[in-house]
From TrEMBL:
Name used for this protein in its record: Ribose 5-phosphate isomerase A
Gene: rpiA
Source species taxonomy: Bacteria, Bacillati, Bacillota, Clostridia, Lachnospirales
Enzyme class: isomerase
Annotated organism of origin: Anaerobutyricum soehngenii
Gene3D superfamilies, alphabetized: 3.30.70.260, 3.40.50.1360
Pfam families linked: Rib_5-P_isom_A
SMART domains referenced in this protein's UniProt entry, alphabetically: DeoRC
Length: 223
């Protein structure tokens, strides 16, 4: 299914483009197809794993810092709703993913139908990147908003996960989107305005369209 989705995404990529590639397995297949077809493109990515894969495949990878324009960017997500709001919970690289999404003319999500919902169920955490010194404050404010906040721990070493930007990763859990008028954008705003929160993993109003594998066909999901 993921390969089918990646093959469809390939059709949107032409020689000369600067292409954003996020993280995850579907994007990995897309990188492989780009290399197989010897597309003359440059890649920017928020993910160290994708960067390494692309370099090994012989694709040219540019640093995000040196980039000012991206023609099209592809990424995976964990949940997507019919308004094209998305949740990207687990990667902990969502701040850089959002920079790519903002820079891209089109930011496209690659999913299968198991990730597509009427309303985001928030089964995964709404992950926050937080400035370390703000952690207790943010944790308390998340609880006031009716959520549960858990600092992401590093399983290999003792201590907390540190993001690429030197910040902590906090997983927050909200079961009642109803408390936010059923709107993920309201929850996103409330979390984003807490001092010390760098970014939330809710992607609001940035997705141009999604390619969704349903059975053996790929549907384009637009607003
Ligand atoms: C992490 C993400 C990833 O992009 C997503 O999980 C990738 O999914 P897949 O491996 O199915 O392509 O959003 O939070």
């Amino acid at each position: 299914m993921k390969q089918l989705c990646a093959k469809e995404a390939l059709k949107y990529i032409n020689d000369g483009m600067c292409v954003g590639l996020g993280g995850g397995s579907t994007v990995g297949y897309l990188a492989e197809y780009l290399a197989q077809e010897e597309k003359k493109i440059t890649v920017v990515t928020p993910s160290d794993d994708t960067a390494e894969l692309c370099k090994n495949l012989g694709l040219m990878v540019l640093s995000l810092e040196m980039t000012d324009h991206i023609d099209i960017a592809f990424d995976g997500c964990d949940e997507l709703d019919k308004h094209l709001n998305a949740l990207k919970a687990n990667g902990a690289i969502h701040t850089k993913e959002k920079i790519i999404a903002a820079m891209a003319e089109k930011y496209v999500l690659l999913i299968d139908e198991s990730k597509y919902y009427e309303t985001l169920p928030l089964e995964d955490s709404v992950t926050l990147e937080v400035i370390p010194q703000s952690r207790n404050y943010v944790q308390a404010q998340v609880e006031k908003l009716g959520g549960k906040a858990v600092m992401r721990k590093n399983s290999a070493k003792a201590g907390f996960v540190i993001s690429d930007n030197g910040n902590y990763i906090m997983d927050t859990y909200f079961t009642e989107l109803a408390a936010f008028a059923g709107k993920p954008e309201v929850l996103h705003q409330k979390l984003k305005q807490l001092t010390g929160v760098v970014e939330t993993a809710l992607f609001i109003d940035v997705v141009a369209f999604a390619l969704c594998v349903c059975g053996d066909e790929v549907k384009v999901i637009k607003k």
